[in-house]
Amino acid sequence: MSGNVRPESMKRINTPELAEAFINEQVAALRAQIGGKRVLLALSGGVDSSVVAALLIKAVGKQLVCVHVNHGLLRKGEPEQVIKVFRDELGAELIYVDAVDRFLDALAGVDDPEQKRKIIGKIFIDVFAEEAAKLEGIEFLGQGTIYPDILESDGVKSHHNVGGLPPELDFELVEPVKLLYKDEVRVVGKALGLPDNMVYRQPFPGPGLGVRCVGAITRDRLEAVRESDAILREEFANAGLAGKVWQYFTIVPDFKSTGITDGKRTYEWPVVIRAVNTVDAVTAEVAELDFALVQKIVKRITSEVNGVNRVLWDVTPKPSATIEWE
Ligand code: XMP
To answer: How far is the CA of 325 from the centre of ligand 1 (A)?
Structure first.
């Protein structure tokens, strides 16, 4: 797709038929652009990169090489789903990089949120560039840039929020969804046969669970974030709230409080639950949850998550709070 301005004549893609037409058009354009060359793509499993991957697989098959970097800050089951969908079901060439120790070792003892983001972003680029260097003949870099990214920035989506790309990743960009709005990307993803929980998933920040494990990340507290998040998502799905509440997740602060379990005193972390609705993430309202659902989540988290004895519900809108805690 050429040009960075959405033509006025471009129809809003909101039906499977319009999505099909877009897909056919893009497949032809991608084949023309890429020819017989190879394309590299950082595949996080988020909607945008997943849709770009599926389009590229359709267009150029094994000329696409996807790299999925596990930085240890992904949600429960995410790396497994990326492998299942892209390698097993769509037959993609997928390199899975387990960089968990590298990220968590570099983050040990770092409590400043912006410093944490910088470390995560830098190591992500380093790992991705190292993988790129091992591959022969890459000439293109796939990017999940979408139209709001172009409107809001310089048009290059910097994965995990670091500016620009280093020289080793200086390939020609392939950005097939760069003129689409998020809802259109979802319609296209659905038409490409991607699973609903990938297509309709809630926004997930680049630094992942790292900004929800408040302060210096420790492996045990990170595990408490991941397990409590999985419980929250499961209970929201059971209650029919998946896709209805804009963003919902858990946070584990770095302090402890006293509790009691089976007659014994405990001294453990709290889990904070956060569920918000918003249009543009600039302001946000707290989602009104059924209290029986909240109680069920509290019971499950305190009995199933190691090291947790208390659950708090953050009912603060944005402003004054941000959506994330860091
Ligand atoms: P806040 O916490 O600023 O978040 O109210 C607004 C939205 O942005 C997401 N967010 C991030 N996304 N990298 C991202 O890609 C980040 O560092 C980051 N920090 C916050 C947040 O999840 C919410 O959707």
So the answer is: 10
For a mutational test of ligand 1's pocket, the pick from 124, 323, 326, i.e. the residue with the most ligand atoms closer than 8 A to its C-beta, is 323
- The pLDDT tens digits of the residues spanning 214-242 come to 999 999 999 999 999 999 999 999 999 99
The amino acid that residue 261 corresponds to is: T
Q: Which CATH architecture has domain 16-199?
A: 3-Layer(aba) Sandwich (3.40)
Q: Provide the CA 130 distance to its chain's centre, in angstroms.
A: 22
Per-residue pLDDT tens digits for 119-145: 999 999 999 999 999 999 999 999 999
Report helix, strand or coil for 144: coil
Q: Distances in Å between the alpha carbon of 136 and those of 53, 65, 124, 140, 298?
A: 19, 11, 21, 12, 51
pTM of the model: 0.94
Q: Cα of 305 to ligand 1 centre, how many Å?
A: 25
Q: Where are the domains of the chain?
A: 16-199, 212-313
d(CA 77, CA 227): 10
Q: How many A from CA of 161 to the centre of ligand 1?
A: 10
Query: Tokens at residue 50, please?
Result: 């997943």
Q: Does 88 score more than 60 pLDDT?
A: yes
127 vs 130: CA distance, rounded Å = 5
| Contact between residue 310 and residue 270 where contact means Cβ atoms under 8 Å apart | yes
- How many angstroms separate the alpha carbon of residue 123 from the centre of ligand 1? 19
Fold held by 212-313: GMP Synthetase; Chain A, domain 3 (3.30.300)
Identify the residue whose C-alpha is closest to ligand 1 atom 3: 322
